[in-house]
Amino acid sequence: MLPAPTPDALAHSQRVTAHLRALIDDAGGWISFAQFMEAALYAPGLGYYAAGAMKFGAAGDFVTAPELSPLFGRTLAHAIAPVLVETDGEVLELGAGSGRLAVDVLGELERLDALPARYCILEVSADLRARQQKAIAHELPQFAERVRWLDALPAHFSGVILGNEVLDALPVELVNWTEDAPLSRGVIVEGDAFAWQDRPIGDPLLRARADALNLAPGYLSEINLAADALIASLAHVMDRGLILMIDYGFSANEYYHPQRHMGTLRAHYRHHALDDPFYLPGLCDLTAHVDFSAVARAGMAARLELDGYTSQASFLLNSGLTELLMQTPPADAATYLPQANAVQRLVSPAEMGELFKVIGLSKGGIALLAGLARGDRRHSL
Q1: What's this model's pTM, rounded to 2 decimal places?
Q2: I need a labelling partner for 35 at 20 to 30 A (CA). Which of 174, 196, 213, 227 fits?
């Protein structure tokens, strides 16, 4: 049984539904799923990430790695500190969520004497930006002038660009491969509900990607053109430094495996994963797993170096996660055991350790990160 929304939440979902219906009507009765997903997540004042509902942690819809333990952000700080020193650069975090990762990374960089001149956050959600500002002001008031929020990518950047669970939240195109041709699966209004309708693919780039995959008739999956565009944009502004993306996903061979013939698209509501992306619009997060082969291709096409691709477990352990955990004496059970349990979730193959991957793309001859030095899986891409 799914938790029932409050009357206020239900009213908000009804406003989001009305907005989506209007978009479909204005477009002539059909929009691509990417358009539906973008509006459901990001419509100003309405979308899931643009409105005020709790999203992260036990009271929200899902738990991210930074929410599990400060050791995640602290380990990331150790991983990226050499790049910041080498480039004398800054940090740019994409989609900083609750602000927890920024707090933990900055705190550890201070201890490492590797603080960047600026820690920039690019956040499209006014609601989340306010939460991030509150977190920084409360926990790291000494860095209030060092942390900057951006409305768009800078024209030039050197340092480290961080994206933790960013790519999975980008709008994806849904494609249905049929006997005759791949079709774009879009959304229509049918009575009082949303429904699926397939149409010929009009976008030449999407059609080329779908044709190249050459999947069997009856196969339904996602193609994330927005991820390609984001990587290309990051490469364009990067003068020298590293792009580090952490997310759940697979290489293309795994992503489009015959057994995954219904795709990876999911809605997340109060810690439940649902197959119905039309459930309570505005109250559910919509996500799809990441095709890291496509991310790597987009980076290399934009003249970035593919530094490494590995599991989250391998990256964190290579970067010193265990050593940071052991700074808490095991004899202090009340403090140590919760941290040890969180570490187990971060690195266990049955939890986040194997499903989540880390990909590093660089420009300017950056030294290889210790986190990517062992367990490299670039050959699988």
Answers
A1: 0.95
A2: 213
DSSP string, 315-353: HHHHTTHHHHHTTS-TT-HHHHHHHHHHHHHHH-TTTTT
Contact 93, 102 (CB under 8 A): yes
pLDDT one-digit tens code per residue, 151-183: 999 999 999 999 999 999 999 999 999 999 999
Q: Could you tell me the strand order of the sheet in which 266-269 lies?
A: 272-274, 266-269, 285-287
Please report which confidence band the pLDDT of residue 144 belongs to, taking 50, 70 and 90 as the band edges: confident
Q: What angle do CA 181, 182, 187 make, to 5 degrees?
A: 130
d(CA 70, CA 74): 6
Are 67 and 57 contacting, i.e. CB atoms less than 8 angstroms apart? yes
Q: State residue 51's pLDDT score.
A: 73
Could you tell me which CATH class the domain 7-374 is placed in? alpha beta
DSSP type of residue 141: G
Cα–Cα dist 129/97, whole Å: 8
